[in-house]
């Protein structure tokens, strides 16, 4: 794991740290070829320079965010923002269902929108896969 991501996780309280560590472990296992780094102050994984998945500490939870998640056809994911992102929020590590995250990560690899070039395209997203 990227040292900066582990440092991010270590800064969380014990409950959130456990959530973050479990999420990172699942993501790393499913996306071993993805670049991972702190991006806009949060851990994010990229494929070919395109953000795929990340997590962030919110006031009352840890949010797992999939940039193309609105097109995954997954009832458990909630729409986030005005583009294609979707999220799931965790308040305890016991809520983490590895099979769900594995499935979402597989879809994240297969279904991608081009966030890398969103500024160049003046806010218009194009589907890559």
UniProtKB/TrEMBL annotation:
InterPro entries: YdhG-like. SUPFAM superfamilies: YdhG-like (SSF159888). Residues 17-108 form the YdhG-like domain. Pfam families: DUF1801. This is DUF1801 domain-containing protein. The lineage of its organism: Bacteria, Pseudomonadati, Bacteroidota, Flavobacteriia, Flavobacteriales.
